[in-house]
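Quarterly update, task 2.4: uracil-bound model.
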Amino acid sequence: MRVAQLAGEADFAGWREQARLLAGQGVPAAEVVWQVGGQAADLFAEAPASNGAVETRALRVPAAFPALAEQVICHSDPQRFSLLYRLLLRLQDEPQLLKVATDPDVHRADAMARSVRRDMHKMTAFVRFREVTDEDGGEAFIAWFEPEHFIVERVASFFVKRFAAMRWSILTPHRSLHWDGAQLHVLPGASQAQAPTEDAMEAYWRTYYANIFNPARLKVKAMKAEMPVKYWRNLPEASLIAPLIAGASRRAQEMVMTAPTHPPERHLRQAARSDTGQDEAREAQQRGEAPVASWAEAAAAARICTRCDLYCHATQTVFGEGPLSAPVMFVGEQPGDQEDLAGKPFVGPAGQLFDRAMAQAGLDRSRAYVTNAVKHFKFQLRGKRRIHQKPNAGEVKACRFWLGLERDFVKPQLVVALGATALHALTGHSGSLMSMRDRDLSLDDGTRLLATVHPSYLLRLPDPEAKQREMARFIADLDRVGEVVPALRLAA
Ligand code: URA
């Protein structure tokens, strides 16, 4: 029997080092005992030999394994170390193993990693600080939290970034984090008795929660899924939940009777990006960790999308638009300068050309759903001008999440890819668009797909004759759309 000693419950570096040594020497998983911290080792057990005297073999793992192992190691299941070690050994002979989701070891590791990710998200969402006065009379904040897994060090950077200007401590049974305004200290666990229970912040949290609670959107089951009951005892706002639920239907009726007001879009965007609990729910939706129940919820969550960096410079997210019952969905590349300012797809020069071509093909744009593969404008500043830049594969991939939701909620009979980026986003095809243009294609779920050029390709053609010829061909492609879905034709 071999004993592998780890410095802590989530000691990934220690596990990796020992696992490499043991696997290199071909030690079977059943012969390794993993121990954490100062637990007594078996008198008859040998520690892994690391003196180079033992022959070792080279190890190979797929790129996904270290990331998976780093999450699984934080799980509270004591079997996690040996499960990972078994996977490491098996990967030597079965390099594709991680793709076999039904394999019991892979399935177990995936489930553990998911549970760890969820726990990390819950910690970022449900830690509530209480204000205290420290020994020097200064202001500090303390929170008590009980994570399910050993995640505290992994989420520390989130709190450091978000609350860099405060001095705070987060106490948990296993580890405590202390931020003194300049440096983070990771200390042993604490007890709840060390955390204060009441302060003025509580009243603030309750007021805040009562304000963001939307009685018209009350879904108790979804709420419990997103904010599990076990966290309620440490949440100041939890005492409000029952009375707010009880009064929800009356308040919803009052809201219906009240005339709507429309804040300016700029304020909406700022509010959408600000630090509220609604953001957290939407952020969870963006990460695919919370269900998105409707197109409207998807559009709202997309407004604060940070799945790639394009949101940093764009004015706003430009989500698709059109009837949710539309039989045809047109997918472009990304919003341009004017779309970015208007918040609507295809309203600038390319959109106007598209409108003309649709009209000439006898199609009614207002019956179609029009969207883009990428929802933020990517550009380069040249003087005061914002020059369109093509989105890269990573940006297209990050945004595919939204396009997938749009397809789920609209369920068009036919999707039309306008240009190579759209085709790539929809199918993964990264070859030439022209080779796919005149073909009857279909998407992964069987929906029919046609591919044609992007209207801005026509705008860019310098030769008037070529422009005319290509425009006629584009109109012919749109005419084909009308043949496949006659419901899109303009009423005679
Ligand atoms: N180009 C696109 O692909 N989409 C728009 O919305 C505008 C220009």
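Highlight for this quarter: DSSP finds 19 helices and 14 strands in the chain.
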